[in-house]
Amino acid sequence: MTPDAHTSRPRRAPSSQVDPEKPEYVWQQVLDHLVERIEAGQFGCRLPNREVLASEYGVSPHSVARAIRALVERGLVVTLRGKGTYLT
């Protein structure tokens, strides 16, 4: 995420990234976009927390949690309880 030029708050991901009408699950759409963002280097060493990502994508924290679980399974991130989710 990059800060907005006028505020210190991060910009929201485009809402068109998650479309509930698509045949893919919402968490899968979030996962695909997170992978793209990771590969593009949009995150430092740590992902934003689940609530922030859920707000950015306009989805439930549960959908984000499922997407993060898939990132862990792919070996792209590691989650440390109480500390956050870090890129590997």
TrEMBL record:
Any one GO molecular-function label of the UniProt entry: DNA binding
SMART domains, alphabetized: HTH_GNTR
Keyword DNA-binding: yes
InterPro entries: Bact_HTH_transcr_reg, Tscrpt_reg_HTH_GntR, WH-like_DNA-bd_sf, WH_DNA-bd_sf
Pfam families, A to Z: GntR (PF00392)
Keywords: DNA-binding, Transcription, Transcription regulation
PROSITE patterns listed in its UniProt record: HTH_GNTR
Name this polypeptide is given: Uncharacterized protein
Gene Ontology terms: biological process: negative regulation of DNA-templated transcription
Keyword Nucleotide-binding: no
